[in-house]
Amino acid sequence: MAARQYNKSYEVMPSAARLTESLRDIGYDFPTAVADLVDNSIAAGASRVDIDIEFDGPDSYVAVADDGLGMTANKLLEALRFGTRRQYQPGELGRYGLGLKTAPLSQCRRFTVVTRRSTVNRVVIRRTLDLDIIAEWDSWLIVEEALTPPVRHAARRLHDAPGTVVVWEKLDRILPAARQDGGWAKRRFATLAVKTMEHLSMVFHRFLEGRDGRPPIVITVNGEKVVPWNPFGQGEPATQIMPERVFEVLHGSGAGHVRMQRFVLPAKDKFSSVGEFERMSGPLKWNRQQGLYIYRADRLVQWGGWNGIRAIDEHTKLARASLEFGTELDVMFSVNVAKMRVSLPTVLRQMIERPVHDLCLRADHAYRKTSKRHGPATSERGRAASVQLTTVGVALQMAALELGHSEVLQEMLQLIKQRDADLVIGLGLD
Q: Per its UniProt record, what Pfam families does this chain match (predicted)?
């Protein structure tokens, strides 16, 4: 294809000072900013990622260190380019070439990347991006500054083996403007460490567990190992697992596949322990943790709620489903820069409405059966009759579900309800 011809052309460079300040508000909070750097570590083949959130008043810092491949000097400079020219391979967690820059800068004004590539030579390279320097010169400058104590410590970590450490300093979005060494600031750091552990345990649970022959990675926060939080309770014997569904979605260069797995978690009295029931409630607790868990290349990018397909309901709080797609469908899912929000393609939304409805029916049954067991005391004969009716109701629903006649059953129930509403209630199908 021939190049387009112009009468005149003008290159208009954006103001580095203005644009870098704008990019600070791209949508990260502290845990999601850390998670974006963990993405880079996984892409670099790391088996371990250590996150230090160190409180030291105005000199507080954050460091994300990995034992991945490391970078050469040229690759490091390219990685620090806003909108790197590097091409991402299918399945890589990177997307826009912005995360290494925008994630730290959403929380701090200066960050330094310290890296070592060679397994033989102990050559450690460091480069710093400092918003105050960019503002002073209004230029896209990357510098090599004098070593600060956190950066010196990061370099020592790479003495024995390759890897990369990203050090955040000038934490203006974390520390208060005044009394940066006060008790409130210290407590905030402790809270951020807890929230970051919770976030990483959920977002990277498949990497922490290991999957498809891939060894598990180790992630620590302030020396404490992150324990994976799998939202689907597959270790619980009473968890119901419905058949997997696979949907084909067409995109510009071909077709991609979206996999859906559906789970009904046990009611409280069916869990192996009360403690496990509470743990599986998740950071958002039961009602808000119900719904769709959307994975991009095994990394969780959105969770909780039904993406507008249906409303959150107390009766369906045991229902959770995974949707998994590959990076070839990024455009269709409108993955945002912070990798924490997607939009379901319209065609896929239509495909999954019925499977979601069927999942919620089954979760509703599981919830109501427990409610009836723990309801007011009745006579032995009354309890037996109630159990028999409920059992019949569940059997009818499950049979209709498996035969694909759920809509017919609903029409029948509406007719029966007009004639004998108590019978429908007794069946547990109201």
A: HATPase_c_3
